[in-house]
Amino acid sequence: MREGEHRILIVDDERLGRRSVARQVEVLFPDAQVREARDGLEALALIAEFSPTLVFLDVDMPELSGLDVLRQLREPRPKVIFVTAFQHFALGAFEENACDYLVKPFTAERFALAAERARKELENDDRLRALEQSLASAGSYLTRLALRIGARTDVVSLAEVSCLVSEGHYTYLHAPGRQYISELTLVHLEKRLDPRMFARAHRNALVNLSAITRLSQGATVVAELKDGMRLSVSRRNRRDLLAKIQGAG
Amino acid sequence: MESVAAAAGFNVLKGQMQPHFLFNALNALKELIADDPAAARAFTQRLADLYRLILKVSTDATTSLADELAIVEHYLEVERVRYGERLRFSIEAPDDLRGERVPSLVLQTLAENAVKHGISKARAGGEVRVRVGRRAEGGLEVEVSNTGGPFDANGPRAGAPGTGLANTRARLELMYGAAGQLTISSDPALGTRVRFVVPGGRADAA
User: What pTM was computed for the model?
Assistant: First the structure.
């Protein structure tokens, strides 16, 4: 994000509260567009109209508190830094996905730290969006995936991947003799993969159709793969999987 | 009587002036120093005057109405620096009542309560009115009211009189018995009015 693209909203029901944030913003984001709101309702209206990238949000305001404002934000949500005189709001603020919180009175150094956090998060969001756009504009399915393993990056051909299994926040890619971990979610990967090549086996697994060597049909259907992996095929994915195998065959 | 006064004095110290008040005042001061140095100096003076008076009156169960009203005025002026035009207030008391004794820091507590419920919770703010008058039957009638936010704007928790008010009620009853009863009337359209009576006009004679 270039400096001039920052749109910053300062929300506080007290004029001096807005001034103290504005003063720091002028120093740290000299080229940003800055607007101010005097309470929660005004903040919601301005967020819709001005679509700020970063909001400094006072917690203790009449009628609609800072937390109320945060709860009513829709995607794409701006980054939010809470500004409060009351320490105990901190927990709730983080649960609601705030970037940081500043306790009044704050030093210029502490403010700069919060601003830096927000700046980093905004840059990361930009990078992710750029990546998604370039993938979408390529208009083709993923054939290879670059995966980091420690300091090294391996390029994995998806034709060699027998299955992708999600576990927690990660997706495990199984290839002959190797296993890779990706930080992309299974749902995200599925959109990028050729549906003629991969099918859902169950809620947490995609299987490479050409890797299936046998489908054993007992009480449950199990797909046996070239590399010895066995995946159960859920009832709801069974028909689709079989149709794809026949289509591919 | 001595121990009652001492107990009341202790409660005054314990219950008065929310720590948040000083915090908020310091936050405002920090900003004023950069924004308007002359206003910052006046504000510091006012804050010092306020605390000096509080210190002076908090050792006794009662104080002069003049001191009590000075405290209320300083307090409201400090809050006005924070709230700006959202806070409007008036203080009305006949000059000849200024020497009368009133329970110390009770008006201040009620004014603080009025700002908390009537001003800080209302976007448009409101007005705090403090009125003291002589009753025909003797003694004083004291009233603190606030427009703006209704007393129970945000459900039963916000609507219930806070500990400050509960302590004040207990203190007045301790000092004046049934005659010192605190009454609260609240109307969503008109705001809230808190009233009490200082019997006989001279509390230390009660």
Answer: 0.68
